[in-house]
Amino acid sequence: MTDYDSIDFSPLHALTDGEVVTHSRVRDVTLASGKTLALITLDNGRDHTRPNTLGPATLTELGEVLDALAVRAGAGEIDAVGITGKQYILAAGADLSDITRVGSKDNARLVAQLGHKVLGRLGELGVPSFAFVNGLALGGGLEIALNSTYRTVDASAAAIALPEVFLGIIPGWGGAYLLPNLIGIENALEVVISNPLKQNRMLKPAQAFELGIMDAIFPAASYLEDSLRWADGVLTGRIAVERKNTPGKIERAVKWPVAIKMARGMLESKIGTVPASPYVALDLLDKARSGTKAEGFAREDDALADLVVGDQFAASMYAFDLVQKRAKRPVGAPDKDLAKKVTKVGIIGAGLMASQFALLFVRRLQVPVLITDLDQARVDKGVAYIHEEIGKLEAKGRLDADAANKLRGLVTGTTDKTLYADCDFVIEAVFEEVGVKQAVFGEIEKIVAEDAILATNTSSLSVAEIGSTLAHPERLVGFHFFNPVAVMPLIEIVSTDQTADAALSTAFVVAKALGKNGVLTADAPGFVVNRLLAKVMGEAARAVYEGTPVADVERAFAPLGLPMGPFQLIDLVGWKVAAHVQDTMTRAFPDRFFSHENFHRLAELDEVVEKDKGGRVTGFTKAALKTVKPHVGSQSVPAEEILRRVQDGLAQEIRIMLDEKVVPEVEDIDLCLILGAGWPFIDGGASPYLDREGASERVFGATFHQPPIRGIAQES
Amino acid sequence: MADISDVFFVDGMRTPFGRAGEKGMYWNTRSDDLAVKATIGLMERNAAVPKDRIDDVAIAATSQTGDQGLTLGRSVAILAGLPQSVPGFAIDRMCAGAMTSVTTMAASIGVGMYDVALAGGVEHMGRHPIGTNADPNPRFVAEKMVDPGALNMGVTAERIFDRFPHLTKERSDRFGMLSQQKAQRAYDAGKIQPDLVSVAIKDADGAWGLATEDEGRRPQTTMADLAGLKTPFRPHGRVTAGTSSPLTDGATMSLLAGGGAVKELGLTPKMRMVSFAYAGVQPEIMGIGPIPSTEKALRKAGLTISDIGLFELNEAFAIQVISLLDHFGIDDDDPRVNAWGGAIAVGHPLAASGVRLMIQLAAQFAERPDVRYGLTAMCVGLGQGGSVIWENPHYDGKKRK
């Protein structure tokens, strides 16, 4: 058993440089019964935009405060200890900037052990401890609460979560042991593993209460007063705390192993076996079924130390930083003051894509949105679809009746293009063909004001070519969404040689208003995401036409850790679109991209691939097999060869894109892949993965990052 | 047609009162939040009253600006979680703000327009010192309508001594000392605490704490201490900090109901309103205002001063209370007067104080079934007085043993 008191934590002192220390201030509170509760307030002295974090100096101070309170408890001076946070925030967890520079595995273990030592004290004070979760409680913040004897939560708290698995680590300050023992294995699996993997979903306070993480929930207006009164009730025995989700003998013996087994199966089918942290978390949750708290904490110490020094965590932190910082300050975006104010949006088209645009624009910008199509019937269908979607939001309570009416009133359709005259921003969502897009813009250009911005959602055509027939090509900008439009956060904003700063600035401001992240790219075929996805899909197709079974190809791609296999992806974006993208890329770069004429035949079939219930592609349909058979070779390519081809192909293509200045830096490519295609944090998008797999060295004799983004374990 | 109705003070609660200023416990607490806590506490204790039955919310403040400036009754109603259907408004009669909230709501209930109403007041004198947002009309001075000294309450208190030379500084000091002692005795006996709503507070270091008692009390005060205090309003004057109410932060709230609502909702009111009155006096000697207002209220009630068994008189200044007692021939230390101490000890958050008087009178009524009538009265800046006479529902007609 680990004796945390005998551990020398001095190696962590180096990490306290620059730490924004969250102080632990204590005030005694006299409760109505006359009992005394020593209340700790965690406060880093900054406003709510800089949440409390738990670095080594913070933990050390809290540890000293708790030690002193334990002495007072022993002397009978206090009857309870409470802990709460500054306004709106309990704590946002460990200070991640510290964890990335621990320097050694031993130090990584010390970080885990210091947390266990200090937070664990909350359960060993000699008097009960109460965590008053007054606001945001993430990771170590929630673990403060879990280590306490009792917990209440403010009904308005922003979020409650254990997001560690999202970042490639595990809840290592007691969370992995304490949570399942508090709320049962199934609930714990949801909080520790499932939610982080669902784009880092977090709990609302009411959910945390329902799950049994919190013993009581109180409204914000008198949260602390109510909590203190509740604590008094618990201390005097007036209130009995019931925990309905705490696992009993039967759950431990029967339900627990079954739940772990099912979760493992689900994980393997959903994310494959490449990501480490979900499985480490799963093992910890499994073992939390029995044994002591001390044993659970020791397991967490080892697990956290292993993960913190690994490649996946290093890449995850790189990716997290891109998403948190770089995405919010797009490189190359002109001054936002140059943007044209958008008071009415025109969308050319009324099909599914156009309707999705209309819904997004009207909800986010709250300005009139006009759609159009070839005939009134299509227009009516588009408007009806949008109204229906608004109705669904209203039914879910996401919009009240007035807001829904407002949005419905803002969306109109017409076949009379002259109604576009007062649109400031017109985006097309018509058939992906240069001639069609040129014709559409040619017509609209004569109607709209001279400074109206025109945007094309083309996924792979040349924006300059689309604009070549315009009288004012400088106002045309590429504005490329990703499917599903409502969900994917990326918009590739494409600038041609002629695009004016006003148009570009407007595009960035509109993207931000839409709640999306705009990334500037040059007018190169496929821009960023489709160019690299075409590489992935092309290599998959190449292997199939050489004679490799589809299922083998899907498996060969698994180590990449992509959200789905290449054929699953093709099936999602649509075979026709995929075939079109492959053609475009092959036309542009015939020696580097693969396409096959037969692909278009496949695209005409109703169903091309068979899928299991997890959505994974298991093979071609009979009709597809028949279609491809005459064109398939007899050479099944080994999995390692397929993987190496795609790794090298990606490394080569990214290197070329950087040389061609498609984006300024490799970080922008990774950002696009993460936001537009869901490429994993544990790969850092693509470049950290390609560096660590040796692909960059193989292809161009260097690495994208110097030094490469590796875990400490691999350095030195 | 609506019917004329009896008006009942069903219940009242308040925040603990805090010393105004940077060192006071509410320096980091918003004024409207104080009113919100009092409202929530009161509604929780009176859960039998459906929130949507509140016909109106009147909340007073003297300095209606900043965090006590946004139509307090309405904004506090929303913040306290009352339904959107409940209306509200703000009131100002300086020190008699909360009293005016009560009498205004009472009048609406009395003529049968309202069934249930909330009435209270708040003053954060730390954040909003009296007069800081005022811009007095120059005509007051130019036309010699009001002496500039009338705007300084301490100066007006000195004037009471001038007018009534037999009211001495020694009597005033003794009254101040006794107020402190009586308040502490009431605290020790647990008389005050049941009507206080605890408030979470934050100190300068950001640490949370809990306000559970009035902050400014000085129970150890002696006559010698008081004799040595400065007289800030006049050299060699008679008014000192020890005989004045301190600058204070706090909020009060009361629940009023008509006879029909009391019956329908099964409420047990603490007091029945008998009469109320306001009166104006010379602004330069505003402290004597409650004398004419009390005479008016007695007249309306058909009572005489000898019918009043308990007095809750706001101690803006000791001398000002003594002047009223002297006028009605009551001893300075008459046990019927401010039995649990007054504003000199617990503080006077201007527009909140009126309801504190009522809360304290109501609590004494419950203990004193031998008393039938009580008076709450207070002076008001710029020369006014306000008085409300209440009847004790516990009155059993038996003499006290």
From TrEMBL, chain B:
CC annotations in GO: cytoplasm
Active-site residue numbers: 95, 348, 379
UniProt KW keywords: Acyltransferase, Transferase
Source organism, top-level taxon: Bacteria
Keyword Transferase (UniProt): yes
Family: Belongs to the thiolase-like superfamily. Thiolase family.
Protein name: acetyl-CoA C-acyltransferase
